[in-house]
């Protein structure tokens, strides 16, 4: 156990505990430290004041950050839309329908779940629910990575869901970035600071947009005490809420004066854009797909070039990792699966119903596309 402990190192929880217990020296001349770099009130409001509530860069954080949420959706739906091609014979049932109960719409939904787990949690575990007589999987389902526990015992992985230990022969684990650890790491893990920064800046932006920061103030030509100032403020607020767009009537000796700063700067818009683009790189998603303009010479002349770049440097490695896991652990020798990504970087004008193999399969299988007998439409039989 000592050797295993040395090889695996401390757990993430122990690392967080050690970080929180370590004395953090504030920056010189301030009360702000590198660790406690987010507005304290916002930090407390989001339940991040203890190790129990610490949320690293996993799917729980990605669910709250719009960029991460959208990037996971884009990658997952893109890979799920690629036809899974089987090479060999006979074709197992899971190629088209791995879990009719949980994923009744076919392999696409199961692939979507796998990709989302890979980016959100760093790993996905498939559980074989039925075997053929030759011992190879017939059907399988996708386990929720949030509840799967992976531990090392006697040099092997042990999988648990709650208190139930799973049969390792039925588990197929796929990691986003295979390493010497027990599981891969989430895509947002190294970008967690950007994610929290985006949340904090968004919170500040909401405060500014909702009027938390006034755009002007009321300047009095004579000195007002606290009671008079409060009465003037209350009168202005009451009148503003009931005038229904009518121009305000300013009392004598009161002049509305614009603030010397731009409230939009307090929304940290540039900071939000920087963090958003940084997070998009964590998922390999081109910023243009998130409606963020690219500056400089890195532009794309057509959708085909954009799709090919996205496929080559992000989608293809992820799809290949999934296909390799299927081929290595679910199929006998001489059989394998691949993803057909031809339509990912094809010109939009070149696509048609006949060119899309997945669309053709759906059309052929749809009852609405099947020819009806003449008796069904009132004609002669």
What does this structure look like?
This protein has helices at residues 2-8, 12-21, 40-45, 59-62, 66-80, 107-121, 192-209, 226-242, 263-266, 269-282, 303-330, 357-365; strands at 84-87, 123-131, 137-142, 148-153, 156-161, 164-165, 171-175, 216-220, 254-258, 336-339. With 381 residues, it is an alpha+beta fold. The strands form 4 sheets. A 3-stranded antiparallel beta sheet has the order 3-2-7. A 3-stranded antiparallel beta sheet has the order 4-5-6, with no helix packed on it. It has a two-stranded antiparallel ribbon with strand order 1-10. Helix 5 runs antiparallel to helix 6. It is elongated. The termini are far apart.
Question: Helix share of residues?
Answer: 25-40%
Number of helices: 12
- Structure summary, number of beta strands: 10
What is the typical, i.e. mean, pLDDT? 77
Instruction: Using the alpha-carbon principal axes, give the shape.
Output: elongated
Calculate Rg over CA atoms.
Answer: 29 Å
Q: Beta-strand level of the residues, as a percent range?
A: 5-15%
Main β sheet profile = 3 strands, antiparallel
Biggest sheet strand line-up: 3-2-7
Structural class: alpha+beta
Terminal-residue CA separation: 77 Å
The helix/strand series, from N terminus to C terminus, equals HHHHHEHEEEEEEHEHEHHHEH
List low-pLDDT spans. 1-8, 19-40, 49-54, 372-381
């Amino acid at each position: 156990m000592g050797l295993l402990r040395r090889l695996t190192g401390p757990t993430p929880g122990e690392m967080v505990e050690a970080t929180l217990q370590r004395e953090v020296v504030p920056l010189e001349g301030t009360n702000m430290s590198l660790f406690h770099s987010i507005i304290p009130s916002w930090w407390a409001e989001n339940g991040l004041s203890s190790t129990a509530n610490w949320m690293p860069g996993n799917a729980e954080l990605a669910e709250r950050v719009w960029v991460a949420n959208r990037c996971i959706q884009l990658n997952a739906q893109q890979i799920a839309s690629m036809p899974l091609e089987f090479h060999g014979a006979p074709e197992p049932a899971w190629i088209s329908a791995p879990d009719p109960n949980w994923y009744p719409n076919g392999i696409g939904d199961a692939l979507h779940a796998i990709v989302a787990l890979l980016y959100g949690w760093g790993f996905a575990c498939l559980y074989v629910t039925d075997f053929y007589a030759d011992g190879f999987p017939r059907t399988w389902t996708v386990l929720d990575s949030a509840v799967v526990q992976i531990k090392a015992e006697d040099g092997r992985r042990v999988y648990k869901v709650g208190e139930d230990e799973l049969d390792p022969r039925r588990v197929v684990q796929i990691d986003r970035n295979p390493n010497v650890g027990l599981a891969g790491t989430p895509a947002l893990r190294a970008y967690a600071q950007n994610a929290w920064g985006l949340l904090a800046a968004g919170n500040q932006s909401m405060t500014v947009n909702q009027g938390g920061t006034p755009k002007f103030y009321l300047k009095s030509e004579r000195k007002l005490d606290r009671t008079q100032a409060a009465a003037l403020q209350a009168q202005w607020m009451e009148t503003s809420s009931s005038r229904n767009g009518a121009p305000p009537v300013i009392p004598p000796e009161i002049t509305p004066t614009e603030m010397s700063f731009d409230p939009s700067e307090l929304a940290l818009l540039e900071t939000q854009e920087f963090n958003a683009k940084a997070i998009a790189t964590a998922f390999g998603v081109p910023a243009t797909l998130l409606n963020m303009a690219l500056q400089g010479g890195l532009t794309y002349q057509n959708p085909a070039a954009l799709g090919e770049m996205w496929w080559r440097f992000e989608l293809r490695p992820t799809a290949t990792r999934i296909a390799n896991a299927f081929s290595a652990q679910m199929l006998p020798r001489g059989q394998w699966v691949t993803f057909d990504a031809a339509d990912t970087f094809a010109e939009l004008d070149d696509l048609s119903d006949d060119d899309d193999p997945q669309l053709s399969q759906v059309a052929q299988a749809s009852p609405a596309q099947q020819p009806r007998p003449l008796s069904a439409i009132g004609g002669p039989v």
